[in-house]
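Ex. 9. Protein: Probable membrane transporter protein.
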Amino acid sequence: MPDRNGRLLGIGALSGVVGGLLGGGNGVLTVPALAHYTRLSRPAVHGTSTLAAASVCAVGALVYWLVGGTIDLRAGAGMLVGGMIGGFYGAKLVARASETLLRVLLIAILVLTATKLYLDAAGLDPVSDGAVVPADLLATWWFVVPLSVVVGVLVGAWAGAMGLGGGLLAVPALVLLFGVDLHTAAGTSLLVFLPNCLVGGLSHWRQGTADLRIANLVGLAAAPGAAAGALLALALGNVVLGVVFGTFAAVMALREIVQLVRRQRRRPGPDAG
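Predicted structure tokens for Probable membrane transporter protein:
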């Protein structure tokens, strides 16, 4: 039991650092680790990971706000509302879509994000320090608010359907659509998904698809890890952080491509069966 608790605390600490550094996405580490080191069912793995992620979001967002002042409520408020809506209703809708299509779209977003961040670092991006959306539209509330709500719904739904950390999509959305810098995107992403984690995690717990003891252990260790990750991110310049997040996005894209290829190979042929 001590060894098992030690592993869970280690998983929490490492996932907290990743979540604090990158503005979320710690589920990419927590989910496979819990699946490997525990006997939880797959739904319970996702539910436990979601519940434990609440501490990462809370502590990480607080550090970004207090130390760096990097929270953008202009886009964040709408995404927060949209993320809750997506968590309640959107996951079922997105889950009906083809998993192959969802993975292909995720790969495209990750590759686009990695490309933009690498071009930013090299000083070659034609929309560097800006959004792909025209600045005059981003200056109007009537455009920003509906757009941020829709993005929140999609990201929240996608995170629920695919079992991914919301930051993996929220940070690229904030950078590409709203033109915020990476530090602000990371802090805002963590704030946006705090209520989503709480509502989703408690819902999992009430229906028996989350282990509260494991979630508490992982979340307890994740809190200081998230603080350390956020402080590390704030200490890094935009270029360095961009390379870090771009590399993370590229690795995740490669991981999704490998899983997609394996999934296609496991499919029975037309003559099978």
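Check your answer against this statement. The chain is about 80% helix and 0% strand.
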